[in-house]
Amino acid sequence: MGIQNFPPALQPIIQQGFLEREFQQALQSRLGYRAVADREEIAVGIGETLTKTRAGLKPSVTVPLAPATNTNLDNGLTPTTWGVEQYTLSINHYAATTDLNMVTSRVGIASQFLQNAYVNGEQAARSLDELARNALFAAYFSGNTRVGTTLAAAGPAISVDDIRGFTTTFAYGVPAPVSTTAPLTVTIGSNVYQVVGAAPDATNVSTAPGGVSGSLTLSANVTVADATAGNTVTAANASVIERPAGRTNTAALQAGDTLTMGNLLDAVAALRTNAVPEIDGVYNCYLDPVSARQLFADPDFRQLFQGATSANQVFRRAMVNDFLGLRFIPTTEAYVQPHPSLAGLVVRRPIVCGQGALIEGDFAGMATEDVAPRDSIVSMVDGVAMVTREPIDRLQQIIAQSWYWIGGFCAPTDTTTNSTTIPTATNAAYKRAVMIEHIG
């Protein structure tokens, strides 16, 4: 039969002359964000959204009980209780498929069935890693933005580059929309204001990865000096973002603001300040190869390993392993974007994570018998269902190779952890990771 009779997608791989009889694999992305997630199973029959409750702690008692009040049935004590906080984990259905004609595949140079399975598996792994990355960064971008457009005159509303982290406030650990009765304290420019409303733009023009541009409504007029384009806007419970030279927002980064060992140590200090538990003894730092290269050029880093017995191993591998309380995990999935205002500069974002920074919920019913009968070909691989459907066309020649995953990711808050229970704790709602922004 003529090659022109085959589908266009198959024509390039049909042997003509001498071809090597195997497929060469394409370049793969280096994954890692999903590994930081604590996996939980979402039971069958409880809906698509699960609200989980985390118990807080009670403040320390440092004042002795007064003998004069140690009377009656209550012994002079007033009952207290611990606080709670809630976060929501939503599950969704993700899937992809590939068809294979078993007759036409016979004339191919190699097994298309195996290659389809390999490509589907890589696609599934990369998809879940990006979902994990998106959920992690969405939480740790929150409460950090800048003014988008300068106000012509003092007024109660300003435009901002990203409203994430400004739409809700926490009352007794439960998120609630900002309002006049539940305002959110923010710093705009040099002064403190109260956000009572937030609305997204009809057309999203945010420069932040996954950002949502919009406007914030304040309880009082904002001065023009504060509401000048580029000024930093920070929520009282904003996530910690470390930047070189003390830059206060992404647009303020300048050429030469590269990653340093000091930035990493500040990130570790911020996590330890909040008593964030480590992952097998250290914190995970996810960074792209350019960020890692800048670290090797940092004078403090080089001096640390000068004359050290471990220096040869560290520099020979061109990547650090466990040191400074960090485990470095290279990834090509890190957010990289052009600088918002300076042409030719690129913003890179390593992130340092502690245990519990991310939660993965896997639906328990993915491979149950009513979903995947005994005679079906369904294999569970790392929580993902890999499905091969037998031919059901008239000639019984076309099989379908698919994958699906039902689940979701979320970054839990730690609003009940504060200075009354851990004296060094910060006011950040999300405490278990620290993002670093730098030029690279």
Structure explained in plain terms:
By secondary structure, the protein is an alpha+beta fold. The chain has a domain at 145-236. The protein contains 5 helices and 25 strands. A hairpin with a 7-residue loop joins strand 17 (336-338) and strand 18 (346-348). The longest helix is centred in the N-terminal third of the chain and has 30 residues, at 112-141. The model is unreliable at 17-23 and 315-321 (pLDDT under 50).
Essential attributes:
six-stranded antiparallel beta sheet; globular; alpha+beta
How does the SSE layout of this entry go?
Layout: E1 37-42, E2 49-55, E3 84-90, E4 92-101, H1 112-141, E5 144-146, E6 155-160, E7 168-171, E8 174-177, E9 184-188, E10 191-200, E11 214-222, E12 232-235, E13 241-242, H2 261-273, E14 283-287, H3 289-297, H4 299-304, H5 311-316, E15 322-323, E16 326-330, E17 336-338, E18 346-348, E19 351-353, E20 358-363, E21 377-381, E22 384-389, E23 398-410, E24 433-436, E25 438-439
Parallel strand pairs: 1-20, 13-24, 14-16
Antiparallel strand pairs: 2-3, 4-23, 5-12, 6-11, 7-8, 9-10, 9-12, 10-11, 14-19, 15-16, 17-18, 18-25, 19-24, 20-23, 21-22, 22-23
